[in-house]
Amino acid sequence: MKLSVYILICLIFICTNITNNALAVPVSYQTPFEKAHWQFSGDQFGCEITHRVQSFGTLQLSAAPGEPLALSLQADWLSLNNTQSQAWVVPASWQEKTQHPLAETSLNWFGSKAISQKSTAAFLEALEQGHTWQVAITSPDSQYLINASPVSTRSVANQFRLCRQQLLPKPFTYLRRLELKFAPNSSLLNASHEQDLYAVYRYIQADPSIVEVLVDGHADASGDHLANLVLSKERSDEVVSRLIELGVSAKMIQTRHHGTRTPVASNNSTEGRELNRRVTLRLVKTVQNATKTSASRAKNESF
Question: C-alpha angle with apex 192: 186 to 195, nearest 5 degrees?
């Protein structure tokens, strides 16, 4: 009887070790080289490179106006939350091996998509050098190793770099409502204003759904009421003049000045007065054209 119990315990121990060892070996996914394909797409609103990993999902490197590169993995059947996975750049199977990854970043999972915008530039360089992307995933049930197939990657990497050079300076989410702050008793535009106004001009040129630009000048409550009304007009006029100089049609622009009538903060503090010395600039879209434009670039702004 004691021998039988001992044998049973040994069998359980052996089975447990076998199971644990099996779980410790990640399930590997990679598209065969003869079927591997890297695809580029892009315009002024965004650039992306995608690579299909057979039976698992899609790897993607994306660039959007004013944003760092985003590396992402869209899974077909795996969904995780509050979890991180490590992504690496490693030499291809035919290249000299290194002891450590050439680059790495952490992907954060949100359902079926994992994404990172940190330390991602090296992943673009990896495509130019023929290196491999890897993602190690640990789920409650198993472990997975996702491998990119570094075949014909240099061409799409070059296309991606050229596309990034043509990207708009800022996205619509930034430009749709701008607050340009001014110095006391001043209507002069500074370098930051110039950058933002140039970004507005570029966006209007690229997006035909923009039909109106609303410019509103404001002042803080320091000094004479009438003088502040005039100052708010000078500020809005300066912004409008610069937009027209850049190439924005005057017919698109509506300008108003409000003096001290609509403060956004208390004028009793230095910080509040600074916030009130402003010109607000808003971009208005037509609903029909905005829908078409949004649809055409939705995939570029989805991260």
Answer: 125
The residues near 13 (Cβ < 8 Å, ≥ 6 apart) are none
Q: What are the tens digits of pLDDT across the range 43-90? A: 999 999 999 999 999 999 999 999 999 999 999 999 999 999 999 999
Residue 241: per-residue pLDDT: 98
Alpha carbon separation from 297 to 28, 63, 131, 171, 292 (Å, rounded): 33, 12, 29, 12, 9
* pLDDT value, residue 14: 46
Q: Whole-angstrom Cα distance, residue 18 to residue 23?
A: 9
Q: Quickly tell me which residue has 């759904």 as its tokens.
A: 209
| 46 strand-pairing partners | 43
From the number of C-beta atoms within 10 Å of its C-beta (0-12, 13-18, 19+), residue 2 rates as: exposed
Tokens coding 136: 């190690």
43 bridge partner residues: 46
pTM of the model: 0.80
Q: Is the distance from CB of 64 to CB of 74 less than 8 angstroms?
A: no
Structure tokens at 293: 């434009």
What would the mean pLDDT of 160-169 be, rounded to a whole number? 97
